[in-house]
Design goal:
This protein is mainly β. It has strands spanning about 15-20, 45-50, 60, 70, 85-90, 95-100, 110-120, 125-130. The protein has a domain at about 15-20 and about 35-130. Strands 1-7-8 form a 3-stranded antiparallel beta sheet, with no helix packed on it. A 3-stranded antiparallel beta sheet has the order 4-6-5, with no helix packed on it. Strands 2-3 form a two-stranded antiparallel sheet. A hairpin with a 6-residue loop joins strand 2 and strand 3.
Amino acid sequence: MRNLLARSFAASGVALLLAAGGCSSSSSSSSTPAACNTQPFTCAAGTTCWPIDQAADFKCIKSGAGKAGDSCLNTPNSATCGDGFLCLQQTQTDGHCVPYCDSAHTCPTGQACTAAQIIGTTQVTHVCFGGSPPPDAGGGGDAGHSGDAAAE
């Protein structure tokens, strides 16, 4: 994975680095379910995939109120963004809610589905990045959740 941007997105204990790479799906032969960062659209309505600890382990937790482009703080185990969104921070106090994406959930026009890696970990997820989302953007082409999604 090569770096797309040299700058990191610092968060309160969780920092993200954007890297080049398209969206792809992967499956595990293990009987342990994949963390939601590899499948963020499996989270139930009212929840979003969020880092829950300093190791950047992800879990579906209760969503915050933030929508695409809203200011947010990336606090472990306390989501500030809504369903289907992650907070990317460029400084300790300046973050914005960005939608998750994959091959089935596309990004708004002008944004690309980009790999985001948690600094100091092997945790990777995909989010829409680049350009500014329209004022009423609700995320990707279909940022909804599956009806049989996993519970919190």
